Amino acid sequence: MILMILKGQFVKCIWRPVLRCNLKLNFLFTAQLQHRRRSVRDIPGPRPALPVLGTRWIYSVFGRYKMNQIHEAYRDMFQRYGRIIREEAFWNFPVVSLLERRDIEAVLKQPSKYPLRPPTEVIAYYRQSRPDRYTTLGIVNEQGEKWHMLRNILTPELTSAKTIQRFLPELNLVAEDFISLLRTTRDKQNMVAGFEEMANRMGLESTCTLILGRRMGFLDSEVDPLAARLASAVKNHFCASRDTFYGLPFWKVFPTRAYKMLVNSEDQIYDIVSELVESALKEERDTCALDAVSSVFMSVLNAPGLDVREKKSAIIDFIAAGIQTLGNTVVFVLYLIAKHPRVQERLYEEMHQLAPGRCPLRAETLRSATYLQACIMEAFRVLPTATCVARILETEMELSEYQLSPGTVVLCHTWLACQEEANFTSASEFLPERWLHDGELMRTSPFLVVPFGCGRRICPGKRFVEQELHLVLAKIVREFHVDFEGELDLQFEFLLAPQAPTNFIFRDRNE
Ligand code: HEM
User: Could you tell me the keywords of this UniProt record (predicted)?
Assistant: First the structure.
């Protein structure tokens, strides 16, 4: 008996801790093994993943999400599956989406000589089938050294601060013409119905002014059929890219409706822009256009070592990249200003002090207008046109405790991350003041508020777009009280876009 008791005590005193310790070690060891083994395949996400077709069915009639609401689909998926999710594209190729700030920053901060952005496959496929028009996939879709060569040759003029400053007087005129167009389009209640069309025309006119070095007349009160055709072709192009990227990949087997739409829109954009380029070239020869504003055009045309097809397709890509993006951004910025009268008044006060009346806006004025800059920055946080930044991993990375191998496609969902309280206090509110410190603009969160992407693949149009947005917003607020009826519904067209025609009210300010 005594022996049994002693044995029991021995087990309690000696073996229990040893067993406990052993169990703990076992547990830790297994956990560590599991942890080490957590690879891309273990990342949760929508299921089932069908053989070959993957999970793209979730955006089809069989799935729970709509193709034109993909921005909301991701919000829902992050709630269901967690802050890292895996979808599967064609051939079950994994596409990983990130919401965690730490992960997003880790990916976007990765130093790289030639950062890889997944190409829009369908465009790459189409362009390869047209060697008569394209010799490369273009700066947007090319990778590696070829991309680097195109970027180095084609963009220095476009990204130069000096060039953009030289365009300021011309862009002042574009902004004034835009305002005149709004005045003449208003109805008796001061409403401009379908404002987004005007904004797209402004995007087209200012991008052409920059890229072709001449005014094209897209802001004349007569609707230019060319502008309307081009804007609709660009819209179709984005929608077809979305449908082929997120939809079931049948276009790889036979020409689906989306594929045909893409080919049709590419052809239309190509033909229309070719026409613009030809007429700009003719004018260049006849009149020797102003040096100040023809520099980007001439720098592309004179680019050394590039085939003429390449130069033409670069101009096409630049113009196409600037229409809808700029148009949608103007709609979003103005909507946020219209819905926040306090912000609108403070902005007006700033502009009234810095540049009263209708005087042209100079570079120094725009530099001093810190509240204006803060408004644009905050609009980019709350409603950017590009909701995520895409990359292909070049090295092995551990993200949210999953080990991802080089070649994995990751989507950094910066827009959704910007709406999280953990990243921005009062995240759902439009508060331009959050960007100001002692009256100076503070550019914090450089990897979360990234409307133009970041690193070496950053949008080369950024400097130009920022200047254009500052000009347009400043001038509109100086002239009008802006109002918007109802709420703005969004849809996903590869970019974030207004879902329905937008109706803005522009009341003259009584000075
Ligand atoms: C509001 C207007 C615009 C927005 C929001 C925007 C946004 C973006 C974004 C997010 C990227 C991807 C960057 C990355 O992967 O890091 C990009 C790339 C690009 N954008 Fe823009 N963009 C705008 C206007 C323009 C304009 C006006 C042009 C031409 C004049 C342009 C030309 C390009 C080109 C060529 C690329 C590809 C750059 C490369 O891969 O090296 N964009 N843009």
Answer: Heme, Iron, Metal-binding, Monooxygenase, Oxidoreductase
Which pLDDT tens digit goes with each residue over 67-105?
999 999 999 999 999 999 999 998 899 999 999 999 999
Query: CA dist 344 to 362, 470, 481, Å?
Result: 21, 14, 8
Question: Considering only CA atoms, which residue is closest to atom 19 of ligand 1?
Answer: 459
Residue 234 Cα, ligand 1 centroid: separation in angstroms?
Answer: 14
- The number of CA neighbours under 13 Å toward the Cβ of 400 is 20
> Which pLDDT band holds residue 422 (cuts at 50, 70, 90)?
very high
Closest CA to 127 of 139, 115, 144, 145: 139
Atom 6 of ligand 1, residue of closest alpha carbon: 452
Could you tell me whether strands 409-412 and 94-98 are parallel, antiparallel, or unpaired per DSSP bridges? parallel
Angle subtended by helix axes 257-287 and 308-338, to nearest 10 = 100
Ligand 1 cavity residues, CB under 6 Å: 117, 139-140, 151, 158, 207, 211, 317-318, 321-322, 325-326, 329, 385-386, 389, 451-454, 457-461, 464-465
Nearest CA to ligand 1 atom 14: 453
The residue nearest atom 39 of ligand 1, judged by CA position, is: 457
Give the pLDDT confidence of 154-207 residue by residue, as tens digits. Answer: 999 899 999 999 899 999 999 999 999 999 999 999 999 999 989 989 998 999
- The radius of gyration of the chain from alpha carbons, rounded to an integer in Å, stands at 27
Give the ligand 1 atom nearest the CA of 211: 30
Task: For residue 27, give the amino acid letter.
Answer: F
Per-residue confidence band for 464, with pLDDT thresholds at 50, 70 and 90: very high
Q: Return the number of other C-beta atoms located less than 10 Å from residue 235's C-beta.
A: 18
Nearest Cα to Cα of residue 411 among 87, 179, 1, 155: 87
Atom of ligand 1 at shortest range from CA of 150: 41
Atom of ligand 1 nearest to the CA of 495: 5
Residues 6+ apart with CB under 8 A from 197: 228, 231
**335 contacts 196 by C-beta, under 8 angstroms:** no
Helix (H) or strand (E) holding 85: strand 84-88
pLDDT score recorded for residue 276: 77
- pTM for the full predicted model: 0.89
